[in-house]
Every structure is written in structure tokens, then in C-alpha cells.
Amino acid sequence: MDFFGTILWPLKWAVEAILVAWHWLFTSVGLPAAGGITWMLSLMGVVIVVRSALIPLFVRQIKSQRAMMELAPQIRKIQERYKGKRDQLSREAMSRETMDLYKRHGSSPLSGCWPLLVQMPIFFSMYYTLSDVKLHAAAGRGGVGLLNAELTQQFNDAKLFEIAPFHQTLGDAWAAGSTATIIILAVLVVLMIASQFYTQLQIISKNLSPEAKTGQAYQMQRIMLWVLPLGFIFSGVFFPLGLVLYWFFSNLWTMAQQFVIIRELPTPGSEAAKAREERLARRGKALNSQGKVVPMAEYEAEQRRLLEESEKRKAQQPKRQQPMGKQRAKKQSQRTDGSNGPSKDDGAAGAPVK
User: Fold this and answer.
1) Residue 345: Cβ within 10 Å count
2) How far apart are CA 339 and CA 332, in angstroms?
3) Which CA distances in Å does 154 have to 36, 161, 261?
4) What DSSP assignment string belongs to 154-219?
5) If both were cysteines, with which of 16, 60, 186, 336 could 145 make a disulfide (CB 3.0 to 4.6 Å apart)?
């Protein structure tokens, strides 16, 4: 066993356990043990279990990405305030203000990466499990856990659509001259790339406010929208068919999950938020100040109350005096002095009569 295989041993054992459990379930209802449909559904079951466990992290990722986009204008202001200042104190001050901003809003540049970072060890465990199937079947032994020698042989013999072996890569299919397997793998890679592209497109096209679309984070998202598919093209050539299927199913899960979150928890001011408000209005409902869905009558009553409170606060605030220029202040002072002091008529009236 190599170095990475040793490190990933516990995860490989867990992946095999989930895979075997789903395989047992499907064979119990009458599906063939070595059938391609059985093992494909078992791989889909692994995706369901893994992605269900990652739902809290996924929700946190969406909120973090939203917060990062919304904070982009404020971060840009901090950077502009320290623009051109390269001394150590200025850099530390800029970093401190930026981190304080993240802390106040409960966000972090790394929090949006957690779901991907958590998935990667599981993904590599799947890679090693599926890559070892062919070797273990040839040696007549099983995996590291519940995937015993018999199941390993069944998995090795299984074929998608009874054509393409799950353990075969695009390179293997090309070397073997298996045109049907090449076509199946190529179609799956294209679908995998398309699903990943659409998943990212959902965020930057529907779930960002106009202010967020002016920040640097938005530009990075647009770049990643086109860069990520290139990585999938590379991986699609070297990954076994079973792993390509797993990643495609995982992308479908992400796409559907993200669609629900964007639809029900959109970023304020985004197109998705406006669409949700329109849907609620057609049903006679609206969002109150706490973000809860309430009947339209309750929403309107709340808006009237908030307007009255705002007007009352304005009325209670001391009136701001109009700024006065020097000339005007001087004239007013002279006018005041003239009204308080004795006038010419008063002087004449008080003078003795000769």
C-alpha cells in the first residue's frame, strides 16, 4: 500500500462500507449482483450519503460566498485608503481592518472552500477504491474493508449499459480500441463539465446584488467559471468511469441543492431575491423585516408602523440650524444691537428742551 493509500485507509474503508451497503440493498430487491445498473445506483447512493452529510457545510459555503460578494465594496474602500502605503504598519493596519470586517459579518475568504476541501479526501478515496478494483480482482482479493474478493470481482466485471467497464479510463479505452466506451466516457465528461459550469453560473448570474458585481471577488468568480472546466477535461481523461460517474452525480446534487437555496434564500437585492418577492406577492405574501414570510396585510401593517416610527424619530431630533456666513452674521448682529440700544428718536425725546 502506498503513502496516500495508507493515509486514506479509514476513508476507503468507509467508502467501501457505504458502497457495499447500497449494493446489498439493490440486490435484495432483485437487481443482478454484477449488473452495471446495480453498481451505478450504488455509486449514486455513495453520493447521496456523502453529500447529505455535507449539507451544513454547503449552506455555510453559499452564505460565505454571498457575504464575500457583499463585502467586496467595503474591502475595496479599505484597500483604497491604504493605496500607495507600503510600510509595515500600514499593511498591518489594512490587514487588521479587513479581518475585523470579516469577523463582524461572520465571513472568511477560506470558509467558502471548506466543502471542497472536505470532499477531496473522499474523492481520492473513491479514486483509490475504483482504481484498485482491477488489480485486486486479478489478484483474487478484496479491498480494505467490506468490499471482499467476490464483490470486487463482480464490480470488476460490471459494465455501464453492459458496454463500458467501471474500472476503465478513457486512456485504457483508447488503447483497447473500445469505441463505445470512449463515446460513453466522452459524453459523461462533457455532462460533468456542463453541470459544473451551470452550477457556478447560477451564483454569478442570479444570486449577486448589483454592488457585488463590481468587486474583485466577482471577477475571480467569472474567471473560475471558465477555468474549472479545463481541470475537468484533464481529470476526465485519467479517472475511471466509476469515478467520473461519481463526480457527475455529485455535480447534479450540487446543482439541485444550490437551486433550492438560491430560490429560497437568495442574496438581498439580487435577481433571485426579486423573483422570490414576485412569487410571494402573487401568493399574497411578503418578507417582513426579519426575513420571514408573512401575509401581505401583516407586511403592510409592519411597513406603516416602521414609517411612523421613522417619522417620529425625525420629529424628535433637534432641528439643525442653517449655517450662517460672516457677512450675514455681522448684519444680524448689527441689527440686534440697534434694536437693543437707544435709537435716534429715543435720544431726541430724552434731550432737554431749550
Assistant:
1) 8
2) 11
3) 10, 15, 39
4) HHHH-EETTTEETT--HHHHHHHT-HHHHHHHHHHHHHHHHHHHHHHHHHHHHS--TTGGGSHHHH
5) 16
Answer yes or no: is pLDDT of 244 > 60: yes
Report the sign of the C-alpha dihedral through residues 306, 309, 315, 321, in that order. negative
**Buried-state track 237-260, b at ≥16 Cβ within 10 A, e below 16:** eebbbbbbbbbbbbbbbbbebbee
3-class secondary-structure state, position 352: coil
Do residues 269 and 73 lie in contact, with contact meaning Cβ atoms separated by under 8 Å?
A: no
Largest CA distance in the chain: 143
Q: What is the spatial distance between Cα 314 and Cα 320, in angstroms, rounded to a whole number?
A: 11
Cell of 61: 459555503
List C-alpha distances in Å: 259 to 30, 59, 252.
Answer: 34, 12, 11
Q: Report the mean per-residue pLDDT for the chain.
A: 78
Q: How far is CA 312 from CA 144, 304, 316, 317, in A?
A: 72, 12, 6, 9
Determine the Cα–Cα distance for residues 201 and 172; give it in Å rounded to an integer.
33
Looking at 139-148, 186-195, 334-343, which range is the least confident one?
334-343
Which residue, among 171, 173, 132, 170, has the nearest Cα to 152 in the 3D structure? 132
pLDDT of residue 218: 67
Query: Shortest CA distance to 272 belongs to which of 197, 202, 198?
Result: 202
